[in-house]
Design a protein that fits this description.
Number of strands of chain A: 2
Order of helices and strands of chain A: HHHHEEHHHHHH
Strand order of the largest sheet of chain B: 5-6-7-3-8-9
Radius of gyration of chain A: 23 Å
Number of helices of chain A: 10
Order of helices and strands of chain B: EEEHEHEHHHEHEHEEHEEEH
Number of strands of chain B: 12
Distance between the termini of chain B: 20 Å
Strand order of the largest sheet of chain A: 1-2
Largest sheet of chain A: 2 strands, antiparallel
Largest sheet of chain B: 6 strands, mixed
Number of domains of chain B: 2
Oligomer: heterodimer
Structural class of chain A: mainly alpha
Radius of gyration of chain B: 20 Å
Shape of chain A: flat
Distance between the termini of chain A: 26 Å
CATH superfamily of the largest domain in chain B: P-loop containing nucleotide triphosphate hydrolases
Shape of chain B: globular
CATH class of the largest domain in chain B: Alpha Beta
């Protein structure tokens, strides 16, 4: 018997976890969809209000959805991650969970699957579907209306016809944000670690720890860089934007894997 | 089967729970683990299951280290904790999710146990009482065909008929390749079930002996007066309940409570009788 990894055991474990985790997860998806829909219903432009906000290119500019995507997404994936191993903090649940005949690595991988893969994927999917549906709705509701844009008269439906998910990508310049692609995984890794590290109040304790850590780290970095800068004369940037982006991206991957590794060790050392 | 050598364990460094604890347990026995509150009964069971880690010493179960929590060993251990929390699902759903982990899970036996315990199969675990849930996990644990059954206060929460059913089921569950360890304070519930007694006291094993060995060496009887042959006695309405050396090969029934109190009072008195 392979005591480290067996695909069959991993598959069974994913299925078993769904029993426990699935119902709460599906409810949280419904809540998530309701929250996103609520924001859209409240914020989308209506025909009766006249000309909707458009950007200089003449495309519909729904600025609210960018912070909405980031904030709601962050809350959703971190809450899911923070609750995953929370049962290990309760003696009555932890014994039964730890005694399941699967390896620690398999239990950990199942955690990664639910918190980092499924939660991010389902969030992006739900947000995308809702965004797409409301985009279509706006196209339909503005299809027969004309508005004055600057001096030219433009049929707004032409503009809205282009307002699809692909337009979102062109509105937000991906080239400026690609180094942050791995950040959602980084966030889930932190809160997954918190869920195994703390026995109670996982979310709030993790959030406070992360804030303290980042403040302290930022302050130390600032002090060190200030002293270094004072000793040298500025002669232009050492590395350009591309280099910085590569550093940010690769650091986020490395740190995420490092935190996952710590979470694995904590799971391995978990006692009841 | 289970070998413990010089086990040292503490929750806080100044208060050791086990100091160089050593013992061996074999298959084919039902061990009764006894000790006063805080003696470390549950902790010893958790050490055996790999739920806590000792600071030093060796502990092997079926030749495997429980600290590694390997699936091979976990599938051979059934741990029935005193406190537990089951997911809010139906019995069938629970079985569907958990039985595939146990290659030898016996569905027929499980159904028989459920019916003996009067638990309907289509019930949701949420709607069950604590006692019903306990009977459910006992039935599930036994049906896994695990070789090591660890039970922490199994009769807590069981009603009187269920305790009798439990004794019957456990007696029939013992096989030559299975070891059952039961930690309990309710010795009267299980005194006919246990064939070997382990008592923990003062960070170590105060007594480990089979019931036969104990009754062969000691006699438990009621006496009118205490003389110098008596090892331990407790007064009662009709004289004294006493433990005396069994010089004349008398047959007597082991009084676990009396023996327990005697060991806690002065275990050194019993050392000449048990190694």
């Amino acid at each position: 018997m392979n005591n480290i990894f067996s695909f069959n055991r991993f598959r069974l474990l994913v299925k078993r976890q769904w029993l426990d985790f699935g119902k709460i997860y599906l409810i949280s998806l419904v809540v998530l969809a309701s929250v996103i829909c609520g924001f859209y219903l409240f914020c989308i432009p209506k025909v009766s209000q006249g000309l909707p906000p458009v950007n200089p290119d003449g495309y519909l500019d729904l600025k609210f959805r960018y912070p909405l995507f980031v904030i709601v997404g962050f809350l959703f994936i971190t809450i899911i991650s923070s609750s995953y191993f929370s049962s290990f903090g309760q003696k009555s649940r932890a014994i039964i969970e730890l005694m399941v005949p699967a390896s620690i690595f398999e239990k950990f991988l199942t955690g990664i699957f639910y918190t980092a893969i499924l939660s991010i994927f389902s969030y992006v999917l739900i947000f995308g579907i809702i965004d797409f549906a409301f985009g279509k709705y706006i196209v339909m509701s503005f299809a027969d209306h004309k508005f004055e844009l600057s001096s030219a008269s433009t049929k707004v439906s032409d503009q809205y016809y282009n307002f699809t998910l692909t337009r979102v990508a062109s509105t937000i310049n991906y080239k400026e944000f690609w180094p942050l692609t791995f950040m959602p995984f980084f966030a889930t890794s932190l809160f997954l670690l918190g869920s195994i590290y703390f026995n109670r109040f996982h979310y709030i304790k993790t959030a406070i720890s992360v804030l303290v850590f980042f403040w302290a780290g930022g302050y130390i970095l600032y002090q060190v860089m200030s002293k270094i800068n004072a000793q040298f004369k500025y002669q232009g940037p050492i590395i350009g934007q591309k280099g910085i982006f590569i550093i940010v991206f690769s650091t986020s991957i490395l740190v995420t894997f490092w935190i996952w590794f710590i979470a694995y060790v904590r799971l391995k050392e978990k006692e009841v | 089967m289970i070998k413990i050598d010089n086990l040292n364990f503490w929750y806080s460094k100044g208060k050791p729970l086990f100091k160089n604890l050593s013992m061996q347990l074999s298959a084919g026995h039902i061990y009764g683990l006894l000790g006063k509150n805080g003696a470390g009964k549950s902790t010893l069971l958790k050490n055996l299951a790999g739920l806590v880690y000792p600071q030093s010493g060796n502990l092997m179960v079926w030749g495997l280290d429980p600290r590694k929590r390997q699936p091979e060993l976990l599938s051979k251990i059934c741990f029935i904790p005193e406190e537990f929390d089951l997911p809010p699902v139906k019995v069938k759903t629970y079985l569907k999710a958990n039985t595939p982990f146990f290659e030898n899970f016996d569905h027929t036996y499980f159904n028989r146990l459920l019916s003996e315990f009067n638990i309907p199969e289509d019930h949701s675990l949420t709607n069950m009482s604590y006692g019903q849930k306990k009977k459910f996990i006992i039935a599930f644990g036994l049906a896994t065909q695990a070789n090591l059954i660890i039970m922490d206060e199994p009769t807590n929460g069981l009603d009187i008929p269920s305790k009798a059913q439990f004794r019957k089921i456990m007696a029939s569950a013992l096989t030559d390749d299975r070891c059952i360890i039961i930690s309990t304070h309710q010795v009267r519930d299980l005194d006919n079930l246990m064939d070997t007694i382990i008592m923990l006291d003062d960070n170590d094993v105060a007594l480990q002996a089979s019931v036969d060995e104990i009754t062969e060496k000691l006699t438990f009887k009621r006496i009118d007066q205490v003389d110098n042959t008596v090892i331990y006695a407790e007064s009662s309405l009709s004289g004294y309940h006493a433990i005396v050396p069994n010089f004349h090969q008398e047959e007597s029934k082991l009084d676990i409570e009396l023996l327990f109190n005697a060991i806690l009072t002065d275990k050194n008195k019993f050392k000449p009788y048990f190694n």
